[in-house]
Amino acid sequence: MTETAASTKIAGDQVEVWWSSEQSPGDAGWFAGPMPNRYALEARPAIPLTKPAASSLATTILVTPAHHMQELLGIGTSLEETTIHNLARMSPDVRQRIIRELTNPEHGIGLNLMRITVGTSDFTAQPFYTYNDLPEGDTDFELARFTIQRDIDLGIVDTVKEVLAAAPDVRIFASPWSPPAWMKTNHSLKRGRLKEGDEYTQALARYYRMAIGAYAEQGIPIYAMTLQNEPLLETDYPSCHMPPERQKELAIALKAELAANGLATKLWIFDHNFEDAFAYVAPILNDAAGYAAVDGIALHDYDGSPSVMSELAAAYPDKPIYLTERSVWGTAGAARIAEYFRNYASSYNAWVTMLDSRIGTHQWLGTPGPTMFIQDADQPDRYWRTPEYDLLGQFARFLRPGAKRIMSTGGEQPSVTNVVFANPEGNLVATVINQTDEEQSFRLLCEGWQFTAALPAKTVGTYRWR
């Protein structure tokens, strides 16, 4: 006797489904105003879990929950000064609405990991500054003139406090773009290197520790810190070349500073591109003192392959890997995020949350692509979201900190790709990406059960089940 479809269902168990699609990914036309899109975190009819059956579908995804890999720290974006400058132009109610849309998992996308800058970066509306700017020729090894007052005056501190008030579980990590100019070989925030000598290493370690302490005094705990944004780059905005041997010395000195002052901030090394990651990280982590001082490895995706993260995970399994900077667009971008996670990234952070309709205000040397939020430069309370908000939400809204990535086959690149996590509360979440121009059907097999689904062209689907 043939079993009916109804009798093959797990009683009460279905797969919840949400879709988001791309629209003109990365197109500068988004700065001119919103565009219609097909799906934006749209809940779809649930799919039944059924007993396994033969399938003629070309793509089958095999999921093995018992085989779990890295733990997820979080997914987020940046609260660099450009974004905060634009938020500050808005009324308090609208600013609060955007914060909810970013951080609330029910009414937003549940981002829970935010990157801030130590002093200014290239994405700022302000003249470049640090917390210890001195007249040329002066030094201040005791940092008597250290202050974060500019961050207070510019509303950076208050905005971060607003985020934490709305979402207390958000974690903050910080990245510096340049040491104070007096510590550098060229006496400028642009380009240059940290001056040689232990007194400068110790002074910079003290400077970072004081920045962490000053934020803690404001009620903002800094969960982690990278030691130098893009340490292999010297360019005409705040930057500083820092070879691995010097970063190792700095990590050791800063770890001692933190311990002596009762601060638990974690230290992440590198904070630059895949291409140079292994060559930079190995000299630090192959040294016993360097290894002990380091809590994780931070990476950017502007050059090289994400596969180096898998190499680093195999070489240094006790040092989590974090994707601290990259913005991506469309379903190709969503597939790239899945690739980060499939290569052992424990986090993902987008870079720059809100530009205005005149692509402002920043001092980067290129032309940025559209951000998740775009503000009308002439009517600051008017804003619109790009599809990148929803596409990032296909991951962030459904994954909780502490989720474990579990083994899944990749599907077929010409059809769909995926990444699968098990949340701490026990549900499984598969994010499946269709980059093609046609609808793609697939079957997912997991622990004696399966479901089949059809995913529209240029769409990301999230599937959640127990």
TrEMBL record:
Keyword flag Glycosyltransferase: no
Highest taxon of the lineage: Bacteria
InterPro entries: GH (IPR017853), GH30_C (IPR033452), Glyco_hydro_30 (IPR001139), Glyco_hydro_30_TIM-barrel (IPR033453), Glyco_hydro_b (IPR013780)
Domain Glycosyl hydrolase family 30 TIM-barrel: 74-328
Gene Ontology MF: a single term: glucosylceramidase activity
Keyword Signal (UniProt): yes
Cellular component GO terms, alphabetical: membrane
Domain Glycosyl hydrolase family 30 beta sandwich: 402-463
EC number(s) stated in the UniProt entry for this protein: 3.2.1.45
GO BP annotation list: glucosylceramide catabolic process
Pfam families: Glyco_hydro_30, Glyco_hydro_30C
Keywords noted in UniProt: Glycosidase, Hydrolase, Signal
Family, per entry: Belongs to the glycosyl hydrolase 30 family.
The protein's name in its UniProt record: Glucosylceramidase
